[in-house]
From TrEMBL:
One of its GO terms (biological process) is intracellular iron ion homeostasis. NCBIfam families: Grx4 family monothiol glutaredoxin (TIGR00365). The keyword Metal-binding applies. This is Glutaredoxin-3. Keywords: Iron, Iron-sulfur, Metal-binding. SUPFAM superfamilies: Thioredoxin-like (SSF52833). Residues 1-119 form the Thioredoxin domain. GO terms for molecular function: iron-sulfur cluster binding; metal ion binding.
Length: 367
């Protein structure tokens, strides 16, 4: 019998065929949005909505969204879990939890829901979770951009004179930076919180139920950096200092020397395609590809036994858009050998079938 699930396949939306893969995709997405299309191969509306989903997946503003298709009949347990009674049905997930659903074929409403739920709020990026250690979170924040400024307010609306001055200096120096408003997050600013039991601190009796609670106090970023005031400027994860230090470094010329230099995009792309003999630009990583084409091409390269380097174009929109123009190749994945574009999945398949791929790979290893 022919495999009718092929009717559900898409150029950039992965077709999930087993529950373990479904669970892994949802887990790997973390707090980012996952849009699950429960479809049936015999339903024409599913194919039409699949095309809509395919186009949404190509939109740069949804690069952080994971779009997948599930054969509702083949994965009965998953369909049962999400109460799927008809196809198409769309389930919207974040952190493994269902946040919304759409029953039926409505392209406009699907687009509206994807747009609504894909928004990355500041609070999503900055709120700590119960499981996340504050110091680990602070490490992630100070390393979230090459130049990171912790300030009161935002660069557009600073809420203290010191913060206003330091943003003006960075702008005048032409230094690209990201900013974090410490007034929006008291954990980062002050770090005060309470936990129960088995932690060293001040025991306080609760007269209501005679249980005890340990009150724990930390100092947030001030303690982490051993710097008592704001604003604080970090470069490559290292504390530079506050306003006075930054002013002194501007006068000496040290700040501009220390700040990362912005490369011309073409220069950066040239370095990336030459970083190893074989470079694959794909969606996701070899262990967690984010589209069917990327997954297939990884399988081919692994089968041939070629060592290769990868870059996830979903994590860098500048590279994702720029490389299409640089290489004059409109789609991903893209394979480069010794800095030269070989092509995408169709080309690699043909080269493998003709035996040419192994020959090209061998030459790259000998060079």
């Amino acid at each position: 019998m022919a495999d009718t699930t092929n009717n559900l396949s898409s150029s950039s939306v992965e077709l999930i065929k087993d529950q373990s893969r479904f669970d892994k995709v949802v887990q790997d997405a973390g707090n980012h949005l996952v849009v699950v299309h429960f479809a049936a191969s015999w339903a024409e509306q599913c194919q039409q909505m699949g095309e809509v989903l395919n186009e949404l997946s190509k939109d740069p503003k949804f690069s952080h969204v994971t779009f997948i298709t599930v054969d509702a009949e083949s994965l009965a347990e998953v369909s049962y879990k999400y109460e799927i009674v008809a196809a198409p049905t769309f389930i919207f997930l974040k952190a493994g939890n269902k946040i919304d659903r759409l029953d039926g074929a409505n392209a406009a409403e699907l687009t509206a829901k994807v747009t609504k739920h894909s928004l990355i709020l500041v609070e999503d990026l900055t709120k700590s979770t119960a499981k996340q250690d504050l110091n680990e979170r602070l490490k992630q924040l100070i390393n979230s951009a090459p130049v990171m400024l912790f300030m009161k307010g935002s660069p557009a609306l600073p809420k203290c004179g010191f913060s206003r001055q330091i943003t003006q200096i960075l702008n005048e120096q032409g230094i690209k930076y990201s900013a974090f408003d410490i007034l929006e997050d008291d954990d980062v600013r002050q770090g005060k919180y309470a936990t129960k039991f088995k932690q060293q601190g001040i025991l306080q009796k609760n007269s209501a139920n005679t249980r005890y609670q340990v009150l724990v106090e930390t100092k947030g970023l001030k303690s982490f950096s051993n710097w008592p005031t704001y604003p604080q400027l970090y470069i490559k994860g290292e504390l530079i200092g506050g306003l006075d230090v930054v002013k002194e470094m501007v006068e000496s010329g040290e700040l501009k020397d220390l700040a990362p230099k912005e490369e011309d995009l073409n220069t950066r792309l040239k370095k990336l395609i030459n970083q190893s003999p074989v470079v694959l630009f794909m969606k996701g990583s070899p262990s967690t590809p984010r589209c069917g084409f990327s997954k297939t091409i990884v399988g081919i390269l692994d089968e041939v036994g070629v060592p290769y380097t990868t870059l996830d174009i979903l994590s860098d929109d500048e590279v994702r858009q720029g490389l299409k123009v640089y290489s004059n190749w409109p789609t991903y994945p893209q394979v480069y050998v010794k800095g030269e574009l070989i092509g995408g999945l169709d080309v690699i398949k043909e080269m493998k079938e003709s035996g040419e791929l192994a020959s090209v790979v061998l030459k790259s290893e000998q060079a």
